[in-house]
Write a structure and sequence with these properties.
The chain is α+β, with helices and mostly antiparallel strands and 449 residues long. It has 13 helices and seven strands. Helices cover 45% and strands 7% of the residues. The chain has a five-stranded antiparallel β-sheet, with no helix packed on it. A two-stranded antiparallel ribbon has the order 6-7. The termini are far apart. This is Sacsin.
Amino acid sequence: MVYKVIHGITMKLTKEINALLGNRIASDHLQVLGQLLACDSLEDVQKLLADNGIHDSAESGSFLYNPPTPGTDIPEEWHDCLDMDSLNNFEEGEYVGYSTNNKYIFAVIVEELPGNPGPYLRRYKIEIGEGEPTEVSCLDLYQFKRQKKQQAEGKSCTSAEPPCMELVPLAGAVPHSTQPSTSRPSSTRSSPTSIDEAKREIDKCLAEIWPLPENERLKAIKRLYLRWHPDKNPDYNLLATEAFKYLMNRINELNSGQSRGRTASPSHSRGNSHFRDFYQQWNQEARQHRDGRERFSRANHSYNFWAHNENVPRPNREEAQRWCRQARCDLNAAYKDIGGGSTEWCLFKVHQAVEKSLIAAEYKRHGQHPTSKSISAIALRVSRYNAQLRDLPQIVENLKSLGVDAKNTQYPDCHPFPHIPNGQFRSENEMLAVNKASELLGKVEAYVN
């Protein structure tokens, strides 16, 4: 019997290690290998693996933790899904497109850099898979569009309506400025529904773009050109065609030094800017984008990057903030239990606050609920997201040493007969645990906000 148990554990260990090797062992799994050696039964092995979110790769069809590698090329069929608006907000940890060397690659936002003088001059640090983060212009970064839901059943897009594919607000994204006249991001506005509205948007964009330095102005004009190019807007071709003609006329007027109302002024005139030298190149890119989209659409029901690539993380700040709020409520409830004679109940509520805090950090980074149920495993993973979170694993271990646990604080069968959780924990640990958990939650709240 003992042999069978040992053999079963050995076989399970071998299977799981092979599975891990096939998925590039994560650092938070290394400590689990040591804990496996202390297991007394196959059930203990299975429980430990489940608690740490480790599953047999052959049994799981999910590629949730294997998103595209930063720095790799974005497939051509998804180029048309890159949003051409120049004023998008980007969340830390968000997967985006990065334009470099005439190609688009996957990148991950590390942080926005402070001190930029205008919405078109914002700069970010991004991860593209090679050494230290790279500093880039916001004009080189692209969000992936989200598919707009139909407002009425059976309704389809027409040439006079907004596109079926537009940028739905990234959960948690907020404007960089509360003044609508300057840097209102595309993620907070809908596409124009009339030619007059489109013209007003074009005039506003050109007024802000034209004073930019030559290199940045060229990037911004290219994006505006592609935003309204008919090949990029097959769902509302009529509106896009008229807006595109208007855009060409306005660029020509500005290039020749002509002014129209407040849109242009003598200081805005840049007669040496010959964007027409790039029109052929941009037209070709627009056609390639449309061809890629059409090839994909012929073999699939819808053209939706996010639905087709469920493995790509989508930061969700609003959901993270929601979990933080509940974590704070749990912690306040634990504080009220101090000295009440039910230490196990106080420590259980502390565990709830800690678990929800860590889940909040996962939503901020990936927009998803973690699969692991172990606060140690989640804390170890979360600690890699930001420098201010690095000591979370140590805080969690300190809390566990004080008795913070999800099951030991609840169930009698976690203690030797005839004891129950009440009376098995030291009351002096209550305040220590609440304070430690408050420190952890404070760090997560700063990261989330």
